[in-house]
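Data card: per-record layout.
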Amino acid sequence: MDLPSFEENTGLSFNRAGKKLSSFERMFWQHAGKNLKIVEKIDFSREKTDIGTIWLPLELGGMYLADGPYVKMCLMDYNVYRNAPWDLPMYKFIFTKQCLTKTAVEEDRTLIVKLSSIMDQIKDAPRLKIGGFIFHDTRCGSTLVANQIAVLPQNRVFSESRPPTQCLRAYLKNQMLDPRKPDLMMTREMFEECINGVMALFSRSRENETQQQIFIKFQNSRFAPQLTEIFNDVPWVYLFRDPVEVMVSNIGRGETGGPCVREGLAAAQKLPDDQKEWLIRAKSMKSGDRGADHELMEKLSMICASWLLEMDEAARTAYQSNPSKGVFIDYNRLPNAVPDFLYTKHFKVDLSVAENW
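The structure for this 357-residue chain is written out next.
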């Protein structure tokens, strides 16, 4: 049976500038061949704290719609992560099998709601404390640190979740792209509503659960200056590693999928054809063969080095603005630096809770 049109199902077809939404934007509203249901509010009574089910945000959409943004929510079993974070080290691994399925859509466990509407629902709900932020360059032990924090029963940890970064990208991207078009911009007020709303959804407290605080590991440190300015009372850590080791881990024998080269390669696509012959050549080569191409490896190394410098500079900027809340930890100090220093002295986690668990 044919699905109803996007416009018929959602009543949404234009962004603030009156332009049709792209096919990429429409992906937010559909899954498993079905249009996701848009609801006026979330039924929080369906949560079962004794078995760990909780409504959590997956991603944002409709960022530039007149009444957006909207948030895709899922009723998921968070305990599968708490019980063994090493098995599901990223937030997307937790919800992929639980929320992005035909069954989840049919059972209304994955729904869409206006961010402003759900914020009205939870405006008086108690919230967990934001215990700390984890920033990093890449391949430097950040997932290990997040897992070490997640095993403690009083902590709710989110590792590289999309919603906070989506707020930041929407705000900063449009400020940089074309400040002359206010109808396409997310204003500072809209941005703060977005990021505070997302944090409220992650930190919503419920009765009869052990969690006391949340920790968020971000995808890198690019947005550390903005986040530490808004949440200036939240302690944070920047994890780093010898850049040569990071580059070897990312590039290896010519791999192009590592975090430090993905964005650089995307930018290189916009170069004139006579300046990207090496990129065209790379696409036709197997990963193992790229390592023998000295020009290609030099290009990848420069892209990676530039990206790492950007991450370091962002962390340094954040630290200079508020040095009392930030610390830098070398990869070589892990994992002992977490229980010896980060837990107790910087994030001030109460280990007695874990001892009595």
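Known properties of this structure: Residues 1-6 have pLDDT under 50 and may be disordered. The chain has 17 helices and eleven strands.

See the next section for split statistics.
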